Structure formats: structure tokens, C-alpha cells
Amino acid sequence: MDIIYYLIQNTLPVAVALLMVALGGMFSERSGVINIALEGIMLFGAYIGCLFVHFIEQNPIPAQVIFLLGMIVAALAGLIYSLLLAWAAINMKADQTIVGTALNMLVPAAILLFSKMFFMSDGVTTKTRFYIREVKGLSKIPVIGRLFFQNTYLSIYIGTIILIIATVVFYKTKFGLRLRACGEHPQAADSVGINVHRMRYAGVCISGILGGIGGFFYAVGVTDGNTNGHTGVAGFGFLALAVLIFGQWRPIQIMFAALFFAFLRTLAYSVALIPFLKSLNISQDYYKMLPYAATMIVLAFTSKRSRAPKAEGIPYDKGMR
Amino acid sequence: MYKKVNSVIKSKSFSAFTSALLAIFLGLIIGFIVMLFARPERAVAAFQKILFYGFTDLGNVFYFATPIMMTGLAVGFAFKMGLFNIGASGQYTLGMFFALYAGFHLALPKSIHWIVCVLAGMIGGMLWGMIPGLFKALLNVNEVITSIMFNYIGTYLVDMLVKNSAKMYEPTTTRTAYLPASAQLPSLGVKNSSVNISIFIAVGLAIILYIILNMTTFGYELKATGYNRHASKYAGMNGTKNIILTMVIAGGLAGLGGAFAILAPSTIAGSSQTYEPINVIAANGFNGIAVALLGNSSPLGIIFSATFISHIQRGGSQTSILGFKPEIIDVVISIIIYFSAFSLIMKSAIGRLFTKAQRRKKETVAVNENPMHSSTVVPDDVNKPELKVATDMPDVRESDKPGNDFENNVKDFYENPDGEPEKGPEQNRIGEAKENDDSGNKEV
User: What architecture does CATH give domain B11-349?
Assistant: First the structure.
């Protein structure tokens, strides 16, 4: 039973990082812009966020306040970086996949260059630990208290709030409806007076903000505050894309998909703790491949009936029908 | 002469060339600005190194150009089919592993050992390229996601296999052991450089690919599928087969790149190239994307773009003397890719730049010669005879003509007012049309 608690407690910080990035991807793709650059946006947000924390953590500020500030800085960084994609994809009508690939390559190179020149290292590591031992009062609730309010991070609660807000914005507001219209049939949306370019900008910018936040959550909850240019975010941006496809571009399904992938990853890294898996005596390297291999298996089964936004990846051209 | 220049300017390859140049220019400029910010007093000297150092070290420029030429061909070849092979890294790594495996486990004479190793590398890459092809062709999974996932799976798999092999792995250096000399590629004997026979193989393969793409049915089908999948399917091309085949070939090319990289001879006698399994995805695969984009996916263009990228990489590695880091070149390369993606807008912008004055001239001439502008109101009568001609299609049979049908019906009605017409004109026509369709399909 302890193992199950342990697994779930460790799954949640991973899942919330995936969830944020995949939700960001949802906003971008439902507005009609493919966002392969999520990996780069995530890493950029993580790095700038950690850098900020690195500089202010000498001051006597409570850890959770630093966390919030770092998150905001990471969100801003992601927003700024995503503008590069928005400008290229929307104004310049560039090939979105190639631009995304370029942006993904740029971040690790820039991080390595910057860190090696100024810190003599491959990245940055924060000293502050944002780990929450237990939430007072709530941690005593049976089962739930142990699952959600012990050995956790602030990111889980913020992530939950963001998920709720995102779902409401996506389905219950005028903005959400217009955004979705731009991803399905931009010409029709334009004909009823929706500014397609502005909507797509909004979609990409939201994906930048959520991508940056997701990157920071990853750096804090998964790598203990270390962000470097070599391992980056270990393909989490791409996994988030897979989560997005698996979740069929819908917020709640994305949440379950993120939990599924995060659980697999946690399982892969805690093989030694689970007697059953340990007795199988399979090399841990196999388990490291598990999330990626599972992605492929899942995609193989879901892609036939998957329904991507219709206008995804096609630059909007007013003259085209 | 003027016409000739004009046709060159308007040709596709010229605009691709100029937009590639523009992307390179912007990439270098932004790289220079970054360097100015980082270390202003040495930026100019370092930038000169990037631009000119390569000329003093041509052997190594060609040596390092070989693997990225192969991955560039792998990406570019798939691009021609409309597939974005971002998985060249994984295919490269697998090719490298297969070559290593053959190098360590086979005992063959010098003359054929390296050839077998190179072929093994090709097979490794082919296997890894085939998987995204199968996923795309049979299950309709986007090749971008598949190949990214298989980059990770391939890298982890190879690292695991290397580490678990006592014969290949040297735990003390955390790298692979030295390959036997017989498995290494024949060197060209340039001093202080590992440049070897593989550069000729790579260029030869590029030329072969050029011939395949431009002079064979397969190449034609490939490009046709790239332009319009549905049209080519309608024309009877087997898209499924072509997708798989393209990815297998692309994978094989990237695999060869990996084999060439690991099998290259070392400048120090008794040693060899080694690989360090640290779960990092091979950068040469991603550089291949830059190479392919700069070369406009044309095999011949890729020869030059690979050499260029290798040239600035060599220069970049020299900037560390001046306190910079070689990663500056990765920054430049990714900016070049970023701007290469704008090719559509750049091409039209450049086209406009060159043809602006000329077009203005033409327009004035056209207006003078033909006073009828599109906005001029044309009287209805003028259009009518044209309309009639259009409806009178040349191949319509007598019985199919709507007028005839109507006349027949009227005749039928008067001759046989109670009974129904024996053969409805509509039915008749539909039936015939169906037959025609069927026969048409059979012909194709």
C-alpha cells in the first residue's frame, strides 16, 4: 500500500508538468498552429525560471513565494519565446514544423553557450527546495490527505486551478468558441468578423505561457531545480504532444492522458522499489524507454479515429477557400 | 541574353539559392550580435575565425561534412515525398551501432571488413527508418511524432546495448573500445585530419539520388506524391509502398552517416573513433535538417550546404581560443533553420525585388496594347456566343444531348400518351456514365 501512495505522490508532479504543456499545445493547435516548439518553450521557461530563482534565493523570502515568482517569470519567458513561433507561423506563413524544430534546437544551444560562458557549467541548479512535507490540516484526511497533501509540490494545486480555468475558458466563453472556430475553419470564422490572426496569436501565446509554467514545474518537481542544455527537458515537450493527441485535443481527456504517461515514467524510475518488477530482473534501461514506447503503442491504436483540428498547420490565407 | 538572365532569376532553384543565402546571412548576423553581447572586444576576431578558419583546414571540413551530408540527404530525400524525417538522429545512432557491432564481432580481412561494417550501418538505419514509414503508411500516425519518439527509443536502446557489451564498452573511459584497424575506413592521408574515402561515397550517393529523383519513375512518383498525395493516388501510384520505401531509403542514408562517423580512421595510430553512451540524442541528425533545408532538399544542393555547415562548425570550434564556446554555431544553425522555414515569403520577396522594375514596364505595355481591363463592363451580347460554344461539348453523343432527349420524350408522349417512356433519359445517361467510369478505371 505504501508503494501505491509513493507512486501516486511521485506521479503527480510529473503529470502536472505534462498537463500544463499539453494544455498549452491544445490552445495553440485548436487555434490552428502546430506547436512542435513546446519542447523548446518548456526548456526556455524552465531555464529562465530557475535562473531567476538562482538570483533571488539569497534573499530571505519564503520558498513558496519564490516558487510563485519563478513560475510567473517562467510564464513570461515562455510567452516571449512563443512569439517567435507566432510571428513566423502567422505573419510570415512559414512552415510551422520547421520553425518549431529550429526553436527547439536554439534553446539548448543558447543555454549551453550562456551557461558555459558565464557560469562555467552546463546549466543552472537552484538551492531552494520547494518540496512540501505536508499541508497542515488537510494531510490528516484519510486516503485523500495522504495522496494529495503529503510529500507534494505547490505545482499540483496551481496546475489543478489552471486546468479548471482552461476548461472553462475553452468551452464556456466566447473567446474559447472563437479560438476553436479558427482551428476548424478560419475562413468561416473570418466571415463572421473574427480576427483569425489575433485569435491564433492568442492561442500560441497561451501555449507559451503554459509551456513556460510546465517547464518550471518540470524543473522543480522532476529534476530538483536543475536545468541544463544537455538533457534539457528529456523530450517532455514531445511527450506532451503525444499526450495532446492521445487526449484528443480535449482538456479533461488530456488530464487523464498526462496521468497515464506520468505514471509510466514514475514506474520506470522506481523499479527498484517494487518487489514484483524487481524480481523480473529487467534492466532499468528498458523502463526508461517505456514512456516513449507506450506513446507509440497508444498512438498506433488511437490515430485511426483521432480528430485533429481541421485547419491545423495551414497558414491562414484570406484569398483561399 | 536579357531573356536568359530573366529565366534564371525566375527559376525555382535560383530563388531557393538566394533565400538560402539570405537565411545564412541572417543567421550569421544574429550570431555575430550574440557574440557582441557576450564578449564585445573579441567578437570581430571570433567572427573572422568562423568565416575563414575552415579554409585553412579543408581536410577536417570535408571529414565533418560527411556525416551531416548523409543525414541531410536522409532528411531531404524524405522532404521530396512530403515527409518530415526528424528521426535522422535515431537512424544515425542505430547505423552507428550496427557498424560498431560488425566492427567488433566480425573477423574479416582489411579489404572487405570496413565495407561490411558500412553496409551493416546502412541496414541499421534502414530498420529504424522503416518504423516511422510503417506507422505512417499503415496506421496514419504523423511521422514527426513517431520519429521523435524513436529518436529517444533508439538512443536509449543503443546506449543500453553498448554498455551491456563487454567487448564494445570500456568502463574505465566510459566510451566504446577502439575498433580493429580493419574495420576503419581507408584514410585519404591528409595531415592532422581523419578525412577518408567516405566523402567520395557520400558525394557519389548524392549524385545517384539526384538521378533517381530526376530520371526514374520511382523518383517521379515520389515527387508527385509529395506535391499532392491524392492526385498521385488517383493516378495509380502506390502511396503506401512509396512512403515505406522512402523512409527505408532515408533511414539507410542516415545509418550510413552514423557508420561513416564511427568508422572514420583516427589521426593517432592504434586508436579509433569512439562513442560515449550518455543518453544524448545525436546532434548530427538535427544538423541534417539544416543541411537539407539550406540545400533546398536537392541532393546536389546538399553536397554544398553540408560543406558550408561543416565549414562554420570548424570555425566555431576555434572560437574557444578567444573565450567563446562552439555552441555559438549551434545557435547560428538553428537561426538559419528558423529563417529557412520562411522560404515561401522570402522567395516571393526576392522574386519581387528582381522583377519589380521589369514588371512595371510590362504592365504599362500591356495596358496600352489591350485597353480591355478586367473592370471594364462587357455587354451581355458579347458573352453569349461563347457560352453556346461551351455547352456544345464535342464528344457528347447524339442520344445524350439534352435537346434530343427532350424531343424524344415529347415524341414518345404524343405517340404513346398513356404509357411511360420505355427508357428514362436520366437512367440511360447514368447507366452509360457508370460504364464509362468502369472502363476508365480499368485502363488506368
Answer: Orthogonal Bundle (1.10)
